[in-house]
Amino acid sequence: MFIDASALVAMIVGEPEAEEFSFRARQAAVRYTSPLATYEAALAISRIRRAPLAETQGVLDRFAARTSIQIVSITPEIGRLAIETFARFGRGKHPARLNMGDCFAYACARDLDVPLLCEGDDFAQTDIRLA
């Protein structure tokens, strides 16, 4: 599965969905995220916890190591898929209103052929397989 920034934040800060997301993640044979997702998660966690970004980065690194989340590279193909995703589902183009981070999460999940673990309704309005 590909773990979106929203799910990373939920699990790390203990949002209401944290337990369900953690359960789903543990069921996955393999877990991925990207540098872009960890960037988004670090900013959100830092804001929520009022913590320095360097500290938040350490929290994310330890969480990824503890839960065996692999950080995948953003390849040129994933970049092209993200652009195509925005053309189909981006803000101002589709009710899903995906932003840049969402488009890259979608593209990573599509490229890896895995379901996407995420919070909210936006991805449910697309054709991506959800975890």
Number of strands: 4
How widely separated are the two ends? 7 Å
Fraction in helix: 55-70%
Unreliable segments (pLDDT under 50, ≥5 consecutive)? none
Task: Describe the global form.
Answer: globular
H-E order: EHHEHHEHHE
Gyration radius from CA atoms, angstroms: 14 Å
How many separate helices? 6
CATH superfamily: 5'-nuclease
Number of domains: 1
Largest sheet: 2 strands, parallel
Q: Can you name the CATH architecture? A: 3-Layer(aba) Sandwich
Mean pLDDT across all residues, rounded?
A: 95
How do the strands line up in the largest sheet?
A: 1-4
Beta percentage is: 5-15%
Describe this structure in words.
There is one protein chain. α1 (5-13) crosses α2 (18-27), α1 packs parallel to α3 (35-49) and α3 crosses α4. It contains six helices and four strands, in the order βααβααβααβ. The model has no long low-confidence stretch (mean pLDDT 95). The strands form two sheets. Strands 1-4 form a two-stranded parallel sheet. Strands 2-3 form a two-stranded parallel ribbon. The protein starts with a strand and ends in a 14-residue tail after the last strand. The radius of gyration is 14 Å and the shape is globular. It has helices at 5-13, 18-27, 35-49, 53-66, 76-89, 100-112, and strands at 2-3, 31-33, 69-71, 116-117. It is mainly α. It has one domain (2-121): Rossmann fold (3-Layer(aba) Sandwich).
